[in-house]
């Protein structure tokens, strides 16, 4: 992310960072960076994938620390990918790396971490906004307008000339410290352009964006300026005990320090390309890059208007893939974080990156299970604007994004590109609405789309309270469309009950007494938090499928303006808790229960046991009433049997024709002989 090698260069030059006390001020947080940072740096365990409950606790802890120091945080998130596909190469590389990490059992950010983070901010009343596309420039513009620092780990912020400076996330200690009896602060290291005076004699602020451009970033290939930069790879520039990248950047920085003006520096770059040609196109690349870094004080920010609540939404437009305007309610929901950037990519690019999970690499991607849900999503986005597939010689034309959505998903140990047809109609519902029609649908019509997509009956939905209906529908879809064992389902149901009870206000004794569980969690929480065994890979894969079911159901619900109440993630799923229950159930089934079997405690509370059995049995009964979906092997056998039947039928038909002809010949011959006999 950002400029290659620049973070390492800053780390090796601590004089560019100075002590800073963050207190009594505004600060802008790079939302996408914080999603990763909190999960990777504050989570005790990553091996179970989807530890949303613990993740939520750490988010609360971090923002409470900011609040104690009277720091007002505004969180800004990236939107969808740019329509120019300028970062497509970078995004594909990241998708490949994520698959490699999954193959090597490395920690991965759970696929709903972003959704959990935003919901936590809503609950904490922390203001957040999602940009149309990349957030970096919007963050920099707003930071200079408000004269407040930025916190991120994105090295692009070393390149922006931020008035109040930049606080690299890895150098921020979020544990509040006392400045006085009433004042607390957060200790950090601040980077500022003024600090370059310590290492350079003739520092020109414009030179930093120029150097960042020749080094390459997410939008510029690292070898674009190799004709210029390769001379700084020589051994004479190598600094002892420093990496090659740091040595190279140091040499380039010292080289540019000799120039008194920005134009001199730019000419020094382009003159090396005169003999190789392409100077004009290179000037265009430089100008584009510099414009994004250097014009932050003259550009207007839409996000600033959104933050100040002065935004004229009618003036904000965005087009879909076919260059048709998206509805205003949809655009507004994107900015508010009510609709995911994943859905934005589906609508604007007809391309979506399906995030690889910790799963069984030898099996199909966990997202294959939810293709039908996505086809309904695509159907709403395509309806009324998609082009009808043309055929030629009875065959479909080559797959493309005019008629399909390109899904980038895991394929074995790499990534593959799959073109998926949108659905136009939904069984038992009828024609799907277009995006512009969604706002005029009744709640019943929206609910109908949801329940028929998930294949449940209204009678099933009505058995649960409104807050749990969508979650139960997801469970039913998961069980009915995969090889989920009863133990795996029971473990998820127990996880839901456990987390919901655990999230109850600890002071609300009345509620806990009514449930008959006043001391249930006090003695058992720690044993679950300290689980260290690795989850069996087949169980991990099954739970990855469950997370995929939950994610894409929530996205469809968002697109339909939330006809069902959305479950709170940290109250319904946590990988460590699910594993603990799964382990307890497996050991019980084997006749050797675990000594820390929390089920023994739950069994002391009849109301919880009754609830657990009711949910499990209801879902299993619903799954049994659905038509069984054939596996690939079963489909091949069925096709083979049908082919044999068709061949046999064809043979019988031909034999019938032959018999008819023989009978006709026999009759004709008999009549002829009869006439001869009469004569």
UniProtKB/TrEMBL annotation:
<comment type="similarity">
    <text>Belongs to the asteroid family.</text>
</comment>
<feature type="transmembrane region" description="Helical">
    <location>
        <begin position="645"/>
        <end position="669"/>
    </location>
</feature>
<keyword id="KW-0812">Transmembrane</keyword>
<feature type="domain" description="XPG N-terminal">
    <location>
        <begin position="1"/>
        <end position="98"/>
    </location>
</feature>
<protein>
    <recommendedName>
        <fullName>XPG N-terminal domain-containing protein</fullName>
    </recommendedName>
</protein>
<dbReference type="InterPro" id="IPR006085">
    <property type="entry name" value="XPG_DNA_repair_N"/>
</dbReference>
<dbReference type="Pfam" id="PF00752">
    <property type="entry name" value="XPG_N"/>
</dbReference>
<dbReference type="GO" id="GO:0004518">
    <property type="term" value="F:nuclease activity"/>
</dbReference>
<keyword id="KW-0472">Membrane</keyword>
<dbReference type="InterPro" id="IPR026832">
    <property type="entry name" value="Asteroid"/>
</dbReference>
<dbReference type="InterPro" id="IPR029060">
    <property type="entry name" value="PIN-like_dom_sf"/>
</dbReference>
<keyword id="KW-1133">Transmembrane helix</keyword>
